[in-house]
Design brief:
Protein name: F-box domain-containing protein
Radius of gyration: 22 Å
Shape: globular
Strand order of the largest sheet: 5-2-1-26
Largest sheet: 4 strands, antiparallel
Helix content: under 10%
Number of domains: 3
InterPro entries: F-box-assoc_dom_typ1 (IPR006527), F-box-assoc_interact_dom (IPR017451), F-box-like_dom_sf (IPR036047), F-box_dom (IPR001810), Gal_Oxase/kelch_b-propeller (IPR011043), SCF_F-box_component (IPR050796)
Organism: Brassica campestris
Number of strands: 26
Number of helices: 3
């Protein structure tokens, strides 16, 4: 007599779940009721490391899932990098301005609305968060969690007002607490810095900031890092970047994370086409040390990176951005490997010029959002 799926030994089921690729989650949940329940208390595909990039991106204000084989596929004898991109129909009624990833959750900033959306793609749970205004382009977000005495995670959202983009007065720093479902105003001081953007890592957010100081009779600016500690709800000490970070010598600086364990930074110089990637060998709210990961001469020289992802094991980086040619803006993505090997990724080309093509790598999570499921 054949054994039913629900009759398999528990250890065997756990092993099967760990080997099923995350992209087959929907099919697995349809196999039997027991497996559907188990997939919501265990992470599927823990041991799946087939060199596939899984992530989310915003295209023309639509949130899309993205799957890309980083080893490429063969098409008529040619090796091509052609991602599978699908619109997330669960969120089809919302126009997404930006998307951020932390602890297996996605924060979606909704265009022209006074609401934020938090989504757990793995558990298919939603949580809407009301804000006091619609100034989406005037805010930056930091994502993390605080730890209480029981070491439980209390997820939080830090909202930072960019005064250069807002004509209306308002609090510079606000924080949303998931446990209390409420916003509060923070009285914190980032020093003589203008915060630019941030990346979530180990429950905190590391912000890229522009620091201005007076050297003699000359005003100089440089890029530094500031960590916001979500447990203490304050900024840490300024952290120095591993390269000459004078603002007037830098074309762009972009932050990313590696498996929620390390911080990564990419920088491009203003006077040449060199692109460098650095990864932290140590990262704490008040200390960081770095090693260089990749260095490449980028073509076209006018290419500006908007986001990137690093696969440390395969020694490669996936970057997205744009370059200008005459009056036109072209969105592009590339895979960059050792020895300066640059390979083009075939992306859609009909995006609106002002809409960023931003990658956000994804790792599943069992964090419960509790409402708006």
């Amino acid at each position: 007599m054949a054994m039913a799926m629900s009759d398999l030994p528990g250890e065997l089921v756990t092993e099967i779940l760990s080997r099923v690729p995350l992209t087959y989650l929907r099919a697995l949940r349809c196999t039997c009721k027991t497996w559907e329940v188990l997939s919501k208390t265990h992470i599927v595909g823990k041991t799946d490391s087939d060199g596939t990039f899984l992530g989310f991106m915003v295209i023309d204000y639509n949130l899309c899932s993205m799957k890309l084989d980083l080893q490429g596929t063969h098409d008529n004898g040619n090796l091509v990098y052609r991602p599978s991109i699908e619109r997330v129909w669960l969120l089809e009624q919302a126009e997404i301005w930006e998307v951020f990833h932390w602890d297996g959750l996605l924060l979606c900033v909704i265009k022209d609305e006074s609401r934020l959306l938090v989504w757990n793609p793995y558990l298919r749970q939603l949580r809407w968060i009301q804000t006091r205004d619609k100034l989406h382009s005037a805010y930056m977000y930091g994502l993390g969690y605080g730890n209480n005495n029981n070491n439980d995670r209390n997820h939080k959202i830090l909202r930072v007002l960019d005064v250069t983009k807002s004509s209306e007065p308002g609090p510079l720093f606000e924080i949303y607490d998931f446990n209390s479902s409420s916003w509060g105003v923070l009285d914190v001081d980032p020093g003589n810095c203008v915060i630019k953007s941030g990346v979530s890592l180990k429950g905190n957010t590391y912000f890229l900031a522009k620091e201005t100081c007076l050297e003699g009779f000359v005003v100089e600016s440089q890029y530094i890092l500031l960590c916001f500690d979500f447990t203490a709800e304050r900024f840490g000490q300024r952290l120095i970047l591993p390269f000459g970070a004078g603002v007037r010598f830098i074309k762009t600086v972009v932050l990313s994370s590696v498996r929620d364990e390390q911080l990564a930074v990419l920088h491009q110089s203003e006077d040449n086409n060199v692109m460098e990637f650095w990864i932290t060998s140590k990262i704490e709210p008040n200390a960081a040390s770095w090693t260089r990961f990749l260095r490449v001469e980028m073509t076209p020289q006018s290419f500006v990176t908007e986001s990137f992802f690093i696969d440390e094991e395969k020694k490669l980086a996936l970057v997205s951005g744009f370059f200008k040619l005459f009056r036109h803006i072209y969105k592009r993505a590339y895979i960059i490997r050792e020895q300066g090997c640059i390979e083009s990724v075939e992306m859609r080309k009909d995006r609106e010029p002002g809409n960023k093509l931003v990658f956000s790598s994804y790792a599943p999570s069992l964090v419960q959002l509790q409402i708006n499921r």
